[in-house]
Amino acid sequence: MASSVAQKRLFHEYKNLSTNPPEGITAGPVSEDDMFYWEALIQGPEETPFEGGVFAAELKFPRDYPLSPPTMKFIGGGVWHPNVYPNGTVCISILHPPGDDPNHYEHASERWSPIQSVEKILISVMSMLAEPNDESPANVEAAKMWRERRAEYEQKVRDEVKKGLGL
Amino acid sequence: MDQAFELPDSTDWLETPLSLLAPFESSLRCQVCKDFFNNPVITSCSHTFCSLCIRRCLSAEGKCPACRSSDQELKLRRNWAVQELVDAFQLARPSVLNLARSENARLARGEEEIEKPAQKKRKIKQAEEKELQVPETDSQGRRTRSGRSINSSAEERIVPHIMPEVIEDSQDDEEYMPEDGLVACPICFRKMKEEAVFPHLSIHQQEEEAPVKPPTKPASFGSLKGPSQRGPALPNKQPERLPAINYSILKDNSLRKKLRDLGIPDWGQKQLLQRRHTEWMNLWNANCDSKYPKSKRILLQELEVWERTQGGHAVTPSAFSTSSNVMRKDFDANEWSNNHDDDFKRLIANARKKSEAQVRSTIPGASPSSSEQREPQPQHPARIPANGARIEFNPDTDANHVVDLSG
């Protein structure tokens, strides 16, 4: 079979995630014909303004995965968060390869390495939703609001969550 | 591709009464490929990976994926003990998993637990007694033989203790059962009278001393003595390792010739040639770590798979699929700058308008502080935080390339 290392490893991760999923997380390839394109659903963490929301994201894997990390992007919009670009792209240290630290704030140990996994990424994203890192604001407006007008930020997040659920 | 769920995986244990074997199996798997360790090697920071996996990581990044300390291929050492653990576990896995699953099914059917286990126990006991008799008399009778025979008789004595736990009533592993008084050679599994085993074993010993092709059934009993006996004998028949090449000092054509000399495809641009050579070197050298090296023909097929999935025949050019490639050792700066020429020009023009000095600020000493180096970002004037803190840099935007180019 001409399956590459990347495909086989993604099979393993897929199987692992479907038999033993972490709480609040679902993920898998959109079609088993293309293991390099996944969709994930993440529940908003409890006791945060994101609680009750379900956020869909796409994960795109490079051909040399797991040497290089995937990219992750929330789809459908509505994630108002300091570490999520307005277009939905997630900016979090685990998705950055170790050589690549333009801001000099990330510890190498937090960044991507071939022993990380989709599961760890999604768990990190969940905790990122709960605890934004305003040292690397991907969405500067959201970061400013989170820092200076927390109540307004939380209200906006709650509104977006409701909108996302069609309420 | 729907064999996803047929891939054996540590999660197979989770739904059985033996769920604690899941972490055990995980620890026998490489963290990079998630497969069982294949030719495991240990790094100088004491982490174990498949030879091929760690070689690929090191040639991409030069760091251990587990702890990120710098390491070199040359420092990798084979980890025989782990290989034997994996071989032994893989051998036992199907029967243990079957047993665990049938136990699960039995529990699900809600059968009484009193009757069957008792039956089983009796059966196992019988088997144990039957087996124990054989080697025990043997080892006593021949204790004065060479160390080798004592070794093997010890192995045989271990067997009966292990086997009954693994055996399922109907699925006994026939190899170890003395049917009609014959026993199997622990190395080649040929059946013979028990008296004949030890003389027969010395044949295998001779075979090992004179290098011949590996036995068809590798791991199992024979591997118990693998490290001490096979280890030192290996270098003689090992293919020679390929040295790393400093690609930057090679012209396209001399690199092409090197690939031709190695017998691998030599088409494509220099960057592809480099990547192909690196992959070949990794495949080849990982194969050198194997107890039973594959033939070059098989390695060439593996290179062909690489070519289709990541190399010149890959659907998407992987070199530019992620921004991270900018950081790779084999990153082709020329091709990148050709592809992004327009972007660069536009950005440079924008930046010049703002400030001549700032564009050159990546030259050491040209700007007084490093925080100022971060300032010239023509694209994101609105993103400067109110408190004037450090600007965030997005590796995906072109802003970064300004710095790359002038640096």
Q: What do these coordinates show?
A:
- The complex is a heterodimer of chains A (167) and B (407).
- Chain A is of the alpha+beta class and 167 residues long.
- Chain A has helices spanning 5-19, 118-130, 140-148, 150-164; strands spanning 25-31, 34-43, 54-60, 71-74.
- Chain A is 31% helix and 17% strand.
- Chain A has a 4-stranded antiparallel beta sheet with strand order 1-2-3-4.
- The radius of gyration of chain A is 16 Å and the shape is globular.
- Among the domains of chain B are: 20-110, Herpes Virus-1, CATH 3.30.40; 252-309, no CATH class.
- Helices cover 50% and strands 3% of the residues of chain B.
- In chain B, the strands form 2 sheets. A 3-stranded antiparallel beta sheet of chain B has the order 2-1-3.
- Chain B: Interacts with E2 UBC2, forming a complex with ubiquitin ligase activity.
- Chain B: Residues 108-155, 204-240, 352-407 are annotated as: Disordered.
- Chain B: Residues 108-118 have a biased composition (Basic and acidic residues).
Descriptive terms for the model:
heterodimer; A: 167 residues; alpha+beta; Ubiquitin Conjugating Enzyme; 4-stranded antiparallel beta sheet; B: 407 residues; mainly alpha; Herpes Virus-1; 3-stranded antiparallel beta sheet; two-stranded antiparallel sheet; 50% helix
What's the CATH architecture of chain A? Answer: Roll
Query: What helical percentage do the residues of chain A reach?
Result: 25-40%
Counting DSSP H or I runs of 4 or more residues, the number of helices of chain B is 15
Low-pLDDT runs of chain A: none
Main sheet properties of chain A:
4 strands, antiparallel
The rounded Rg of chain A comes to: 16 Å
The global form of chain A is globular
- In total, the number of strands of chain B is 5
Q: N-to-C SSE series of chain B?
A: HEEHEHHHEEHHHHHHHHHH
**Biggest chain pair interface:** A-B, 49 and 52 residues
* CATH superfamily descriptor of the domain at 20-110 in chain B: Zinc/RING finger domain, C3HC4 (zinc finger)
- Which sequence of strands runs across the widest sheet of chain B? 2-1-3
The structural domain count of chain A equals: 1
CATH class type of chain A: Alpha Beta
> Between the first and last Cα atoms of chain A, what is the distance in angstroms?
48 Å
Q: What is the averaged pLDDT score of chain A? A: 88
Strand order of the largest sheet of chain A: 1-2-3-4
DSSP strand (E) fraction of chain A? Answer: 15-25%
Run of helices and strands of chain A: HEEEEHHH
Shape of chain B: extended
The computed structural class of chain B is mainly alpha
Biased composition (Basic and acidic residues) (chain B): 108-118
Pathway (chain B): Protein modification; protein ubiquitination
Function (chain B): E3 RING-finger protein, member of the UBC2/RAD6 epistasis group. Associates to the E2 ubiquitin conjugating enzyme UBC2/RAD6 to form the UBC2-RAD18 ubiquitin ligase complex involved in postreplicative repair (PRR) of damaged DNA.
Subunit structure (chain B): Interacts with E2 UBC2, forming a complex with ubiquitin ligase activity.
